[in-house]
Design goal:
By secondary structure, the protein is mainly β. The chain folds into 2 domains: 78 residues, Carboxypeptidase-like, regulatory domain (Immunoglobulin-like); 641 residues, Maltoporin, Chain A (Beta Barrel). The protein is built from 14 helices and 52 strands. The strands form 10 sheets. It has a 27-stranded antiparallel sheet that branches. Strands 4-1-7-8 form a 4-stranded mixed sheet, covered by helices on one side. The protein is globular. It starts with a helix and ends with a strand. InterPro entries: Beta-barrel_TonB_sf, CarboxyPept-like_regulatory.
Length: 955
């Protein structure tokens, strides 16, 4: 019967192909057992009509002109496939073969699309059989790493995300100041930005050269979304509690218009972390105009205003008292929770994109984008008073316990007592959770400000603020333009060319948020009288108004500018059993800083500084060898340079224009070799990789005690400083990331599969980089510069921090033919470290400031003991998920649920940092040996058990 249907379908279609003399492209859809898949929707991008697979899984597109095409295949309960193919002239019929759709565990699950050529394993058809391998779906390793391990802050290969590329509608979304991507700019718009095309790790991409942590590319064309409405409601106990969204797509009209609009909201009165809230919106408008089969223009507008609070890291002492959900950033004001750390922003994005099929072999995509708006982060600040944070070391029980028991101190309740009594009072308050001890006391801050005497300050009369809230603001204006050119020489050779331009301007400043009952705050360094006697201490000398009120700028104000041009040619071709992709890059950037404040310590604080220019060059290559139709050997290699981001180039931009010493382009040399198996019953990738990085510059900022700083003024007067906020700079940092990856998916029976992952890496520092530091307490040093060298930091062979270097996962998924599924997995992490602080691993750490020689009696074993790497505990987790979908006529309903960390493991540390408050061996060692160190590392812990329930309704 199936053969008869197939013949009927074939002979029905032949006349159209013959009479119109155009190309017909066709294929058959099958599941993992080789059975036909019917009623799957197939969307040819740029074509106004979708097609649907018939009862034998057959679909076709007729009258296609020569060119490059992309199709999206979707069916409920199956993974969505994105595939590309080329049509050449004089090609009457193009057979894409049998396309396998694998069952989807969730609607976010994506697999590796493989097109079986239909011939024997040793036959020709190399190009078609590797289309799925070279296309942008995630393989089994990447899928598990993203959806299961990523929740626990696992980074494949230990690679910093700043070395990747994220593109939206043809342009880069990477910020020039720090290299990060603010995904919150389109937060909540999951149904719009889902299913990007991904070139994993350092493999070449058709859209950009990228780095070594993947190229993620997404187009949001209004006609690509399913016609009609889609409503989604989610419930969770994570950062937010609720998510509601509604999307509508008109489909392509006969006049060539398509519209898609979407709105979303995510919110929580209190998230899983104490004292946090979440309130975010998302909106999308997409308009598409198809002028002809060769010309389409799209307009996209995206906006996602948000307001949310953040949670604090803490020392182990604090977590032992209050648990992993403790957050020190909030307290009660008039009986209501109030947080000092609130992020809010709105940076809308407008994009115009032109798609032009120049001729049968060439096409050109052109994009123009503009983004603007402000991002603000509030924090509590103070002048000439003690840090009011409940986790400040002088407010914890361990501080009182470190003192002479009979010493007279001011206790937690503000009453003078002995340190022994103060310890007992503080300990009782922390153990019982007394909010007057464990949280910010807003009423006390207001009271202190309002009790200030009225005084005359710089011509203004009123009460000066001791405590106040400020916003750190980024006011961005970003222009992007890019082109993506494709020329198909024939059906096996393609030339690509990407050219992009970015103009980045960001004014960054601090403004007064709330005076907490006072009349104004002084725009003046509160430590100037001690650290810089005789100097004005003004953050902006010469300004008329030193007394600042709500909305006024204070402390710092400067502008970052950067212009960058990139050219990225590429060539893809097939020869014999090889598919090859070669990509190159050449780029030029110019960066500058313009100071708008005249800082009292630095002559180069105000005005536009010099332009710093960098050239980038690089090559990437991928070679796929087809052993047979289902076994492949894949090599990816990359060698390229990357210019420093603005915050790495300018080491202390808030107050001066100084740049990092000996700064150079970072150089990356990355290689991997994979063996890939892809059959209906087994999908597997085994990879070995080696990534070397050199010339990297890192910048950190923190408070340190015990650093002998000397500042010299214009008259030669010297001031000694022992405690200060420090900017630490490491230059010529060399790193090595090497390891092995294994991902597999085995189908035990047609409805049950086992899947797993193993990642074993070793991420280390390869050298002892030079270390410098700068401090506003010292200003300009004796060398005439705003920074001074402390020599080499001996961190060679230390492990890099930030991610587990061992990760394992094993799980199953069961897919019932009646459209319900269930799955679970076990995940294990080990070899997770904190990044080593470089300052305490320099010779300065062991040198007596008086004799300039090592401390008497210090042995190598003593030093190794106190400076051993901070290894974090290993942990394992169980996750589970399930779901069910229904198709009722034209309606589609999906309900799914997932639970992470079922056993409620709260011992896993997701990240943290070493505190460098004691920069000399004697005080550092003494503090380390205490029962509760005053300056122990600060951590972020996993949040414990969490769930996510999702209901989707399409109509």
């Amino acid at each position: 019967m199936i053969k008869k249907l197939s013949l009927v379908s074939l002979f029905t279609l032949l006349p159209a192909s013959f009479y119109f003399a155009q190309t017909t492209v066709f294929a058959y859809l099958k599941d993992a057992d080789g059975k036909a898949i019917e009623k799957a929707g197939v969307n040819l991008k740029g074509n106004e009509n979708d097609v649907t697979a018939d009862k034998i899984g057959y679909f076709q597109f007729v009258d296609l002109q020569p060119g490059h095409y992309q199709i999206v295949i979707a069916k409920p309960n199956y993974e969505t496939k994105v595939m590309e193919f080329d049509v050449v002239s004089d090609e009457k019929r193009k057979d894409l073969g049998s396309i396998t759709l694998y069952s989807a565990l969730t609607n976010a699950d994506q697999g590796l699309a493989i097109i079986d050529s239909g011939s024997d394993d040793e036959g020709g058809g190399s190009q078609s059989s590797t289309v799925g391998l070279l296309q942008s779906s995630q393989d089994v390793f990447s899928r598990i790493a993203a959806f299961d391990l990523g929740f626990y802050w696992f980074r494949p290969r230990g690679i910093d995300g700043r070395s990747g590329e994220t593109m939206l509608n043809g342009v880069s979304m990477v910020k020039s100041d720090n290299g990060n991507v603010d995904f919150g700019n389109w937060g909540g718009l999951n149904e719009i930005t889902r299913y990007p095309e991904i070139s994993a790790n350092h493999s070449p991409s058709e859209y950009a050269f990228g780095g070594n942590s993947s190229v993620i590319y997404k187009n949001t064309k209004a006609s690509e979304y399913r016609k009609g409405f889609q409503f989604t409601q989610s419930l969770t106990n994570r950062n937010y509690r609720n998510r509601t969204s509604l999307r509508y797509t008109s489909g392509m009209s006969k006049k060539g218009w398509a519209f898609t609009v979407m709105g979303a909201r995510r919110w929580a009165e209190e998230g899983i972390q104490e004292g946090t809230f979440y309130d975010a919106y998302g909106a999308y408008v997409g308009i598409e105009k198809k002028f002809s089969d060769k010309h389409t223009i799209t307009f996209n507008a995206i906006g996602a205003p948000y307001r949310r609070s953040t949670a604090s890291p803490s020392t182990q002492e604090v977590y032992d008292y209050r648990g992993v959900h403790y957050n020190s950033y909030w307290g009660y004001q008039d009986g209501k929770q109030r947080s000092e750390r609130v992020r809010k922003g709105f940076q809308p994005l407008f994009q115009l994109q032109d798609f032009w099929k120049i001729n049968k072999k060439s096409s050109l995509w052109t994009s123009v984008s503009y983004q603007f708006g402000k991002d603000k982060g509030s924090r509590l600040d103070w002048q000439n008073v003690q840090n009011p944070s409940p986790t400040y070391y002088r407010n914890l029980p361990s501080y009182y316990d470190s003192l002479d028991p009979n010493a007279s101190v001011l206790g937690p309740n503000g009453v003078t007592t002995t340190s022994q009594d103060a310890y007992q009072t503080s300990l009782a308050g922390w153990q019982s959770g007394d909010p007057n001890v464990t949280q910010l006391n807003w009423d006390r801050l207001y009271r202190r400000n309002m009790q200030q005497p009225v005084g005359n300050y710089y011509g203004q009369t009123g009460k000066r603020a001791l405590y106040y809230l400020v916003n750190d603001v980024s006011d961005d204006k970003i222009w992007n333009a890019a082109t993506h050119f494709i020329h198909n020489f024939n059906d096996t050779t393609k030339f690509l060319l990407n050219v992009s331009y970015q103009n980045y301007r960001s004014e960054q400043y601090r403004e007064v948020n709330d005076l907490l009952g006072a009349d104004f705050v002084l725009n003046k360094d509160p430590f100037a009288a001690t650290n810089q006697p005789g100097k004005s201490g003004l953050y902006n000398e010469g300004e008329q108004n030193v007394t600042k009120k709500v909305g006024d700028k204070m402390t710092y104000d400067y502008i970052f500018r950067r212009q960058e041009v990139k050219v990225n040619p590429g060539l893809k071709f097939s020869t014999g059993k090889f598919d090859v992709f070669i990509s190159a890059t050449a780029g030029y950037s110019t960066s500058s800083r313009e100071g708008l404040f005249n800082h009292y310590l630095y002559k180069d604080s105000q005005g536009k500084g010099a332009d710093y220019n960098f050239w980038n060059f690089g090559m990437k290559g991928q070679a796929v060898y087809k052993v047979n139709g289902r076994n492949f050997i894949v090599y990816n290699g990359a060698y390229y340079s990357q210019a420093p981001f603005l915050e790495d180039l300018f080491i202390n931009p808030r107050v001066n224009g100084s740049t990092a010493p000996n700064i150079k382009n970072m150089v990356v040399n990355a290689n991997d070799l994979s063996y890939v198996i892809s059959t209906p019953f087994l999908k597997m990738r085994l990879t070995g990789y080696l990534v070397d990085t050199s010339n990297e510059t890192t910048v950190q900022r923190f408070f340190a005690d015990g650093i002998p700083l000397e500042s010299i003024d214009a008259d030669g007067n010297q001031t000694n400083v022992q405690s200060a906020f420090v900017t630490q700079v490491m230059t010529d940092v060399k790193k090595r990331n090497m390891g092995v990856e294994l991902g597999f998916d085995v189908k035990v029976i047609p409805t049950l599969s086992l899947q797993g992952l193993a990642s074993y890496g070793q991420y280390t520092y390869k050298n002892d980089p030079m270390t410098y530091f700068a401090s506003d307490a010292a200003g300009v040093f004796a060398n005439g510069l705003s920074y001074t060298s402390v020599g080499k930091s001996y961190i060679k062979n230390y492990r890099q921090g930030g991610t587990p270097q061992q990760a394992f996962s094993l799980g199953f998924r069961y897919n019932n033919p009646k459209y319900w599924w269930v799955g679970a997995n076990w995940n294990y992490f080990d070899d997770n470290y904190l990044d080593p602080s470089s300052l305490i691993r320099t010779e300065s750490f062991v040198q007596n400031s008086t004799t300039s020689t090592p401390y008497y009696g210090l042995t190598e074993s003593d030093l190794r003991r106190v400076l051993q790497p901070n290894k974090l505990p290993s942990s394992f987790f169980f996750n589970a998920n399930a779901g069910k979908s229904w198709v009722i006529g034209k309606y589609y309903v999906l309900i799914s649920a997932s639970v992470n960390n079922i056993l409620d493991n709260k011992r896993y540390i997701t990240g943290g940092f070493e505190q460098t408050r004691n920069a000399k061996y004697p005080t550092f060692s003494q503090d380390l040996d205490r029962e509760s160190s005053l300056f122990a590392p600060k951590y972020w812990y996993t949040q414990g058990r969490s769930y996510f329930v999702n209901l989707q309704f399409r109509f």
